[in-house]
Amino acid sequence: MSTPLKTKIQVPRSRDLEVDGVKYNRAGSSRSRFEMFAWLFMRMSGIVLIVLVFGHLFVNLMVGEGVHAVDFGFVGGKWANPFWQVWDLVMLWLAMLHGTNGIRVIIDDYAARNTTRFWLKVLLFVASAFVILLGTMVIFTFEPCPAGADPSLLASFCSAH
Amino acid sequence: MSTAVTENQNQDAQQTDDAGEEAIPTYDIVLRVRRYDPEFETEAHWDEWPLTMYGTDRVLDALHKVKWELDGSLSFRRSCAHGVCGSDAMRINGRNRLACKTLLKDLDLSKPILVEPIKGLPCEKDLIVDMEPFFQSYREIMPFLVNEDHTPTGERFQSQDDRARFDDTTKCILCAACTSSCPVFWTDGQYFGPAAIVNAHRFIFDSRDQAGDMRLEILNDKEGVWRCRTTFNCTEACPRGIQVTKAIAEVKKAVFASAL
Ligand code: HEM
Ligand code: SF4
Ligand code: FES
């Protein structure tokens, strides 16, 4: 990226400086504590995610038979246990909010025009709200022993097994 | 403070003498400068000059040689020529430096030396950019002592420890090398930028100043300290060797302390 150029001659240091649709004059203050809390949230959620993500990977991929044990029944069994429901729910929300805020910040860093920023963020928030809601719904409404399923695929605790 | 930038080891290049005579070695260099003249063109272009320079010369001397002997229309800012005034920050071989503090012999002379205006500020002509957005954010952080006490008849005393607390950030010469090396600033110039935060730091941590809280509030802004992504470009760019990123982190901590 080269330095943007002025395409027409302007009075130097003019107050209405604008180059290629990018305003260089500072737009005035926009004070709020939101950015401070967002910054703090990235660090705090990051620390919690280290435990949640690596705990998740350890339990799913290393413990017992490890990755070979992962199948429908394994997932069903985990989500029948309130402990793993809460674990996965917290992991889902923290990862999604952390990731969404990270992308929001990247959009602010790279999109120069306000309208571009706005629409990219609309897309981002809609997408992440969809994933958060769908994920939450699945964790709580997941039916580990659907009626009429192939018994060999069901978890060991299902009565049809 | 170590700000010497070395790209190569140019051993005593071509010695111009045959006998043991003590001559200053000369180098043949190629200087490539990003040129832009709004009166005659809409796009910037590169100009190139082969020059014979001395081993003691700096990039600024090469620019002077071009301006004084080859092309008087070449435009750049410089005043002190000794790293004090902060007017000749430019992008030299892709890095922000002061032309007057960059020795030619420390650069890779096998390739042309690339000289461009600093990024993120609108170019006015050749190497001259409009510094107004930079100074706008500088003014906003109130870079002056605020003290409502009765004016003392003498000096306002301060312990050595209190003085040392902000010593690093007193060294700033407002060259804009840091702010114009910051990718967050490049986007739209709305971020306060490292230089404004460095100069706020200089007063926030000064025991004689009483407006620290106001400055912290000013920097607790959507475009304030929280936009810093700790890329360390600013610390690398600073010709005064100021620990810019560290100063920003200290201001972040102080904002927490005052806001929570
Ligand atoms: C494993 C634990 C994790 C830790 C310790 C962690 C830590 C952090 C921290 C401290 C930041 C802020 C960086 C800055 O402000 O400059 C960040 C940014 C970010 N994180 Fe994470 N994170 C973790 C997991 C994740 C996950 C699971 C995702 C995806 C869902 C993610 C996506 C992002 C994104 C997109 C950013 C913004 C990128 C950037 O700042 O350049 N992180 N992370
Ligand atoms: S902090 Fe360093 S790089 Fe930034 S304006 Fe001051 S002297 Fe220049
Ligand atoms: S000319 Fe003054 S700092 Fe380089």
From TrEMBL, chain A:
One of its GO terms (molecular function) is metal ion binding. The chain crosses the membrane at residues 36-59, 79-97, 118-142. InterPro entries: SQR/QFR_C/D, SuccDH_FuR_B_TM-su. Keywords: Heme, Iron, Membrane, Metal-binding, Transmembrane, Transmembrane helix. It holds the Pfam family Sdh_cyt. One of its GO terms (cellular component) is membrane. This is Succinate dehydrogenase. It comes from Kocuria tytonis.
TrEMBL record, chain B:
This is succinate dehydrogenase. Belongs to the succinate dehydrogenase/fumarate reductase iron-sulfur protein family. The lineage of its organism: Bacteria, Bacillati, Actinomycetota, Actinomycetes, Micrococcales. The keyword Acetylation does not apply. Pfam families: Fer2_3, Fer4_8. The keyword Ion transport does not apply. InterPro entries: 2Fe-2S_ferredoxin-like_sf (IPR036010), 4Fe4S_Fe-S-bd (IPR017896), 4Fe4S_Fe_S_CS (IPR017900), Beta-grasp_dom_sf (IPR012675), Helical_ferredxn (IPR009051), SDH/FRD_Iron-Sulfur (IPR050573), Succ_DH/fum_Rdtase_Fe-S (IPR004489), Succ_DH/fum_Rdtase_N (IPR025192). NCBIfam families: dhsB, PRK05950.1. Residues 162-184 form the 4Fe-4S ferredoxin-type domain. SUPFAM superfamilies: 2Fe-2S ferredoxin-like (SSF54292), alpha-helical ferredoxin (SSF46548). Its cofactor is [2Fe-2S] cluster; [4Fe-4S] cluster; [3Fe-4S] cluster. One of its GO terms (biological process) is tricarboxylic acid cycle.
